[in-house]
Amino acid sequence: MSRAPFAANPTAPVGIQPQPQPGSGVPRPGMAPVRPQVREPTERRTLVVGRGISLQGTVQDAERLVVEGTVEASMIQAAELVVSPGGVFKGEVEVEDAEVAGTIDGTLTARGNLILRASGKLLGTARCRRLQVEDGGQISGRMEMLTDPAPVSPLRTSAPVPAAAPTASIEQD
Known about the structure:
- This protein is mainly beta.
- It contains no helices and eleven strands.
- The protein has strands at residues 46-49, 54-56, 64-67, 70-77, 80-83, 88-95, 97-100, 103-116, 121-133, 138-146, 164-170.
- Strands 1, 2, 3, 4, 5, 6, 7, 8, 9, 10 and 11 form an eleven-stranded mixed β-sheet that branches.
- The protein is globular, with a radius of gyration of 24 Å.
- The chain starts with 45 loop residues before the first strand and ends with a strand.
């Protein structure tokens, strides 16, 4: 016995309407009109690498990367990186903002804020404009603070100021 995909079900609770076929855009009798899904401006395309999952390779078009497992990548660009407790990121990543409660081993560039939580570890090179480290957060390697280049006067003829401030090596146990 076969049924039409959206045939009425006599045993369905009263008031529950069958859903339209995805992409049809045409409501069926007795159904509410289908509205196209519109992304909220604050909603970001998010990739979550869950606990116990390992990902190797490249990630493209993810605006927000949440690492709960392990990610090994040569270069990732995103707007936001979150490394959860127990999460490990190995490789190079460039983001607007980063929050690290797990481990980053490699190179991290945060053009905005870098927050290192108490359980977080940074191994390698980290660059950021603003840094916040909670008590217990560990940095081992090279830290560079990004600064805005000085405005260039039309009368100025010297070389431009570099975008990174002097570096410091930090070892913490």
